[in-house]
C-alpha cells in the first residue's frame, strides 16, 4: 500500500487517489458513528413525530456551513451536502424508530 501523504505533499495522481481513498474510509467510519446517534435518538424520542425537527435541521446545516466557511471551504456546497446528510439521517432514524 502506498504511503498516505497530506494533500500539499502529493506529487502524483496516485498519491492523491491513495489519500482520497483513505480519507473516504475515515469519512464512512465517521458516518457510522453519526448514525449510531440516530439509533440512540430513535430509542430516546417518545413519538415518531418527534423524529423530524425542522428547527434542529436548520441549525445543523447552518453550523456546518459556518464551519466550512471558517475553514475556507464553499459554504453553499457544504450546506447542500449537509441537507442530504440530514435528510438521510432522518430517514434512517424513522426506520429505526419503526423497527423498535
Based on the model shown, name its key terms.
100 residues; mainly alpha; Chorismate Mutase Domain, subunit A; 3 helices; 0% strand; elongated; Isochorismate_pyruvate-lyase; isochorismate pyruvate lyase activity; isomerase; pyruvate; EC 5.4.99.5
Note the overall shape: elongated
Query: Order of helices and strands, N to C?
Result: HHH
CATH class: Mainly Alpha
- Amount of beta strand: under 5%
CATH topology: Chorismate Mutase Domain, subunit A
How many structural domains does the protein architecture include? Answer: 1
| Poorly predicted tracts of residues | none
Second-tier CATH architecture: Up-down Bundle
Report the CATH superfamily: Chorismate mutase
Helix count from the secondary structure assignment: 3
Enzyme class: isomerase
EC number: 5.4.99.5
GO molecular function, one term: isochorismate pyruvate lyase activity
Pfam families: CM_2 (PF01817)
Description:
The longest helix has 32 residues, at 13-44. With 100 residues, the protein is mainly alpha-helical. It is built from three helices and no strands. α1 crosses α3 and α2 runs antiparallel to α3 (75-99).
Give a short overview.
With 100 residues, this protein is mostly helical. The protein has helices at residues 13-44, 54-70, 75-99.
How would you summarize the topology of this molecule?
Layout: H1 13-44, H2 54-70, H3 75-99
Helix pairs in contact: 1-3, 2-3
Amino acid at each position: 500500500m502506498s504511503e498516505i501523504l497530506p494533500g500539499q505533499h502529493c506529487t502524483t495522481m496516485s498519491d492523491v487517489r491513495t489519500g482520497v481513498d483513505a480519507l473516504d474510509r475515515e469519512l464512512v467510519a465517521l458516518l457510522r458513528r453519526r448514525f449510531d446517534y440516530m439509533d440512540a435518538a430513535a430509542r430516546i424520542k417518545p413519538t415518531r413525530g418527534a423524529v423530524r425537527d425542522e428547527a434542529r435541521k436548520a441549525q445543523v446545516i447552518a453550523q456546518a456551513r459556518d464551519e466550512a466557511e471558517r475553514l475556507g471551504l464553499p459554504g453553499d456546497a457544504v450546506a447542500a451536502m449537509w441537507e442530504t446528510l440530514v435528510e438521510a439521517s432522518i430517514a434512517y432514524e424513522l426506520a429505526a424508530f419503526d423497527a423498535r
